[in-house]
Amino acid sequence: MKIYLKFDFQTICKKVLEDTLLAHDIKHKVVGFGEVDLLEKLSPEKLNLLKETLNTYHIEMVENQKSILVQKIKDTIIDMVFNEDTVVNVKTSAYLADTLGHSYGYLSNLFSEVTYTSIENFIILQKIEYAKQLIINDNLSLTEIAFNLNYSSVAHLSTQFKNTTGITPSAFQRIITKRRELNQQQ
Amino acid sequence: MQEDYVNIILADDDEDDRMFFTDAFDELKIGTQVTTFKDGVYLMDYLNTDDCKLPHVLFLDLNMPRKSGLECLNEIKSNPKFNDVAIAIYSTSASEEDIERTFVQGANIYIKKPSSFKTLKKVLSEVVTTNWQYHTNGLNKDNFLLRL
Amino acid sequence: MPHRIYKAPWFIKSIFFTCSFVILIVGGITYRNMDNLSKSSNLVTHTYKVNVQLEQILSYLKDAETSQRGFIITNDPLYLEPYESGRENINNSFVELRELAKNNPTQQKNLKELNKLIDTRMDCFQKSFRFSAVTDLENPNFKEYFYDGKQAMDAVRVKIKDMIALENKLLNEQQETLQSNLKFTPIFLYVVLLMSLFLMYIAYSRIASNLKKLKTSNAQLKIFKESANLSEIVSHHGNWVWDVEEDTYTYSDNLYRLLGEEPNAFEPSLDKFMEFVHPKDVNKLKLDVEKMTETENLPFTYFRVVHKNGKVRHLKSFAKKMVNSEGKTQLIGTTADVSEETKSFRLLEERNLELERNNKELAAFNYVASHDLQEPLRKIQTFLSRLEEKDASKLSDSGITYIDRIKTAASRMRLLIDDLLQFSRTNKADKVFEKSNLNLLLEDAKQDLVEIITREKAIIHTDKFPIIKVIPFQIQQLFANLISNSIKYKTKDRIPEIHITYSKIKASEDANLKKTKKTFYHKITFTDNGIGFDNAYAEKIFVLFNRLHNKEDYSGTGIGLSICKKIVENHKGFIIAHGTPNVGAVFTIYLPTK
Description:
The complex is a heterotrimer.
Chain A: H1 9-23, E1 28-32, E2 35-38, H2 44-56, H3 65-82, H4 92-100, H5 104-115, H6 119-138, H7 142-148, H8 154-165, H9 169-185
Antiparallel strand pairs in A: 1-2
Helix pairs in contact in A: 3-4, 3-5, 3-6, 7-8
Chain B: E1 6-11, H1 15-27, E2 32-37, H2 40-47, E3 57-60, H3 69-77, E4 86-91, H4 96-104, E5 109-112, H5 117-136, E6 146-147
Parallel strand pairs in B: 1-2, 1-3, 3-4, 4-5, 5-6
Helix pairs in contact in B: 1-5
Chain C: H1 3-7, H2 11-74, H3 81-100, H4 105-129, H5 140-234, E1 237-243, E2 248-251, H6 253-258, H7 270-276, H8 279-295, E3 298-306, E4 312-323, E5 329-337, H9 339-391, H10 397-427, E6 434-437, H11 438-448, H12 450-456, E7 459-462, E8 467-470, H13 472-488, E9 497-506, E10 520-528, H14 560-570, E11 574-580, E12 584-592
Parallel strand pairs in C: 7-9
Antiparallel strand pairs in C: 1-2, 1-5, 3-4, 4-5, 6-8, 9-10, 10-12, 11-12
């Protein structure tokens, strides 16, 4: 015997979602497709359990729309800083807005909200991290590093390095070298 | 999944300093859980228990009775269990040389205890956010040096 | 004569040999001459004898002739007697002549001829005797015989004459050769003798002068010995000689005194000496002496001796092997009393330790004081900030003013404590010198001051610096202090501008380095366009807590430049300030190149 069925996936999904949430005793309000407002704060354990149950239906819990965007911003910035092939001629703000399809103001606010830091700070942090990497691994002079990272001068790089880390590039190099020597001794 | 608060431990023998420290975090709008210890021995006893919750950032005062901050630092650095713990030296001012030495011995952060509460809050918030960056962005922790 | 030869040690010897040689020659020549003389007199005698015998033979022949004639006239045999004896005598003379002429073949031949002639004559005599005046004088045979006799006689005469002439000629010839030999010898001998006399005179003068010198050096030696004795007493040391082969010791007078004894109080020997050595040092010294016997050398060795009166003295010995002119091995040793030195050295050492301890304590006190003072001050400041933040609204206006005043005072105190702490840190001795790039240190110093530099828009011009061995943190501190000093004392109407220059200089070419030890220096100058200062205070500004300005106008503590001076002194260098009011100040740093 053969029967033919007609599905409404949205309703099924909604039903499964609601049943699962009810089973976990979570007060909620389904906002729309793929978006549920939880009316209470879940403990990490409870949240994990929910995630696992949903996974059995192959429903994946997208953790945070905002986090996704923030992650995209971060990825773009890291690509900009670390990948020398990505030549950025326009301003970073414009480039980010273009690439991600949101206004820079929105991105900036979102970023600060999620990461407790600004996009500008994040760029600086990444650049300094890259500078650290170059200082340690490539034995480049500060002049070369400043040029690679688009700094106008060594002094500018030094100042930003010091502002970010509290120590000068040469002190940083000294510390890492001595640390390695110490580790080799042990 | 990440916990949504930052776990912080401070070992300092000075009661006032412990108070400033916890007050500052209370006033900061960051989800933190701060635990304090009176000296290095209490701290290490706690850290060496099996089910202890490792802090994200461990603040060490250098001058403590029984076990100094440097002794704690060396113990922690020689135990791979604490590899992920960022260590902040939290001390009265020292010479440039002494500061560099603590970095060489494995400290990530050196904080000269500030003389205003406002600065203290600013400094602590910077420590937590920078650490958060390292934590969340997969940066090379070996390069994590911060002096405030 | 060159002075060098005159002084040469072989000079006298060679003169001695020359003179001996000369005397030998003179002796030889004299002997030969004497020999010649006696030879010549022998010759004369010989000739004389030959001549006499020849004359005698003639005379005997004449006697025989006379006797023959007498017999012939008288026929008396009485007259025959001389003839008879004449025959005998002629024979005798002939024997003699033969003997005399045995070395002369010509004369031998002549003698034979003469003999024949005489025989002929004698034969004529024999034949003539048969005739006499009484009988037959008119006999022609007689006449013939007589005539033959006369002929023979004449021949004999001629022969003898010839022989005498020959003998005389021989004599003359030989005399002449002998005479000619003798003629030059006196002059030669005289010259040679004069020469040796001269040589002997030189030798004498040389010996005499040597003798004089020997006397002087002997006298000096005596003085030296005396002064050595005196100096031994003054410098508390004594000498000894150990004759290795005979194992005997000789002590100088003062060595006995070092042992608390009178000079020559006992027979010097090793065992006797050991009796004086402190019981605790005996074994060590014995070991050293054993080594000395083996290696024939004694390095510096220290030990104590106990005098009879119980006094303990510290002695130091040192010896060296020497082989004397007779080939004997000797150990020449010196022993000195170093009790006073040991005592003062100990005292100095103790004082040094004390000083070091005091210094350390002072540094530690300074450090602890300034370090520990920070804590309560920081708390005061933090509580003030909390009070201001939380309860400012509850305070009266004067309360707020008071809090402001407290804050200012606390800040000032912080500045002082920070500087003091820094000063005490530069005092710590255990600083490590490292090869450092001065450019980087200066860059770091500027980084440290980045806030104030940006705020004041200060312009800093820098030279290229070399890499030198310094205490990096201190040099960075030095640079930072000098730059901040220049900016702090800027004029109100000029942007601070600092020129930092470098050059390597020779100490002798810089007026400021006239009395320094090192040859080369790094010279670093900081020239600013600030308010400067009266050069009369050029040295005073480096003194701790010394300030030229009111603290309301300029926020110095009077420690910064003292720190600079301290740092430069830690590097064994110099810092010199030169100021011109309202033009600027120049700080010059000299660091030795090594």
